Structure formats: structure tokens, C-alpha cells
């Protein structure tokens, strides 16, 4: 029987690379995607479906989490809060969605228990994470312990974070090395047709490509 892994897949570059690493490690991938009222929800969903097709994923979940728009508090889910376009600044940015990864991992754990999966892959990146508190190694280790404490005795789930210590340039290089279809991915916080190029996510992505001496294959405004 093949070993199974739940891959939390937003359709962005990091989660996509993480999923390809899972495949290369011999896991049967069960992909999970969350529609949580983010500004680029439709474009991210398209990226998820395109990547799943490329990965030949047979089993996938598209899960709606409507309450994030209800609580607001993030520029990604509240239309009244502007997405910052003036560069990464110290502290937790307004694009942080409260406890998002904790909620994603909790739901993914329920799916993992149902599917008898032994691992969950998530593409968190500590160094380039814009200061999000739910992207750190320490947080992932704590929630892994809580998940295994709160599931059946026979359930043993590891949380794999293959990118957590990498810089964006290293992520780009690794993705190119593994022939990850980066043209299918989407990272922009603001736009769905052409990436804005100025939000934190676009800046981090473009900077990663520049440092890796490579060209980003997705379309950007004005380019």
C-alpha cells in the first residue's frame, strides 16, 4: 500500500514546490485547497486545479472557509483594507490572516485521519514569510504535537515543511531543478489577470527569480 500525504496547495510557488517534493519522495498526493474569501480566490483555485492536473492528482479537496471574510482583519479578506504596495516592513503585515495556517492544518489533519495519510506537506517559509507568526518551525512543531494528541491513538501524522529554512532564490532554483511548472502558479495578493508586481508576495517572488538569475514565467502588469 502506498504512503499518502496531504498537500496543502494554494497554487502559489511555495506550496506547489512542496507538493512536487512530496511526489518525489514517493507519496501518493491528496491535495487540499482552501477558498477563504481571499482577493484572488478564483485565480488561486485555477492555479490549484492546473497544478493538480500536472501532478496527476486523483484525490483532491476544495474546501470553503467563509468566516475569514466575516471576521475581516486582513487585507487579503477585507476589501476595506488596502494591500500594501510599498515594500516589506518590520512586524506582522496587514496581509496576515489570523491563525490561517493553524486552521488549514487542523482541517487538513481531519482529512489526513480520514484518508489514513501519514504526512502533511505545507510550503511555509520562515525567512521570507513577511513576518507571519504561523509560518515558523516552532509553530509547526507545536501544532503537530497538538494534532497527534487530539487524534486517534493509531493516527501518527508528521508535518513536512521542506522549504521552511530556504530563501526565495533557493526555492526558485529548487523548483527549476525539479521541473515544477511555475507558469501555472499564482502568488499575487491583488490581481487575477496580470500580477501587480508591487505587493509583498510579488516583490518576494520577483526578488527570488532575480537572485536566481531567472525570469518569472507569469504575466506582470506593465511588462
UniProtKB/TrEMBL annotation:
Its GO biological process terms?
A: tRNA queuosine(34) biosynthetic process
Q: Which residues bind Zn(2+)?
A: 188, 196, 199, 202
Q: Quote the InterPro entries the UniProt record gives.
A: QueC, Rossmann-like_a/b/a_fold
> Which GO molecular-function terms appear in the entry?
ATP binding; ligase activity, forming carbon-nitrogen bonds; zinc ion binding
Q: What does the record give as the reaction this protein catalyses?
A: 7-carboxy-7-carbaguanine + NH4(+) + 2 ATP = 7-cyano-7-carbaguanine + 2 AMP + 2 diphosphate + 2 H(+)
- Cofactor binding note: Binds 1 zinc ion per subunit.
Which pathway does this polypeptide act in? Purine metabolism; 7-cyano-7-deazaguanine biosynthesis
Q: What class of enzyme is it?
A: ligase
Keyword set, alphabetical order: ATP-binding, Ligase, Metal-binding, Nucleotide-binding, Queuosine biosynthesis, Zinc
Pfam families recorded: QueC
**Residues the record lists as binding ATP:** 9-19
Q: Could you name the domain of life of the organism this protein comes from?
A: Bacteria
User: What are the EC numbers?
Assistant: 6.3.4.20
Cited CDD domains: QueC-like
Q: Which cofactor does it need?
A: Zn(2+)
HAMAP family from the UniProt entry: QueC
Q: Which family does it belong to?
A: Belongs to the QueC family.
This chain's function reads: Catalyzes the ATP-dependent conversion of 7-carboxy-7-deazaguanine (CDG) to 7-cyano-7-deazaguanine (preQ(0)).
Question: What is this protein's name?
Answer: 7-cyano-7-deazaguanine synthase
What organism is this sequence from? Arcobacter nitrofigilis (strain ATCC 33309 / DSM 7299 / CCUG 15893 / LMG 7604 / NCTC 12251 / CI)
